[in-house]
């Protein structure tokens, strides 16, 4: 019997210049590269991902993101700024996705190994899953990733009406466990990495950027393919760095 073909996996990063707390954050430069370039480079190392796409808005302010993508040789899809679910689903359709990984462009420390672990769990699940995620209760915020079937994404695209469901892409799916089969990457093993679960490794404020910049500048010269546990080790050596954005409050989904 011929084994079934691996579904086509497309990883889509949502990125735009508009941000209420730190405008233009995804193009802030560290170690000679914009943060989005660091993220794309890391996403491309996920071995189970067939293509990386950046989904940005069709507004003039996001021309700079499209220009960067062209320089990086990464696909870019442009769509609605406010209806992010529409933009995201159209990007997935345009790139012939069977399975979609969702990340956001303000997470330059995203770990390709964790994405591969999440995809391996998702693709091997029996019975099949509709959606699975990296649980930020066990991992620092900024390693966030979600994976879903194209069928589940299409359902959200065609049926979601609440504004927060259109803006945030996946709430329509994960808030309906009676309809969609949900999963999550298990908590990491080893010596208490869960202690970092409250850490913010995303970039939403100046304070976040200060921390992420220090981590990138510390790790890139010696270990350009660093993992999330390498970040963890740096912060154990420099516990004061974690204080830089300790008081930043995550914006509410709604």
Brief summary:
With 254 residues, this protein is an alpha/beta fold. Helices cover 34% and strands 15% of the residues.
Please tell me about this protein's structure.
This protein has helices at 35-43, 63-72, 84-94, 112-124, 150-159, 163-168, 171-174, 206-219, 228-237; strands spanning 9-14, 29-30, 33-34, 51-57, 75-79, 99-104, 131-133, 146-149, 182-184. Strand 4, helix 2 (63-72) and strand 5 form a beta-alpha-beta unit. It is globular, with a radius of gyration of 18 Å. The strands form two sheets. Strands 5-4-1-6-8-7-9 form a seven-stranded mixed β-sheet, sandwiched between helices. A two-stranded antiparallel ribbon has the order 2-3. Helix 3 (84-94) packs antiparallel against helix 5. By secondary structure, it is α/β, with parallel strands linked by helices. The chain has one domain: Alpha-Beta Complex (Spore Coat Polysaccharide Biosynthesis Protein SpsA, Chain A). The termini are far apart. This is Spore coat polysaccharide biosynthesis protein SpsF. It comes from Nitrospirillum iridis.
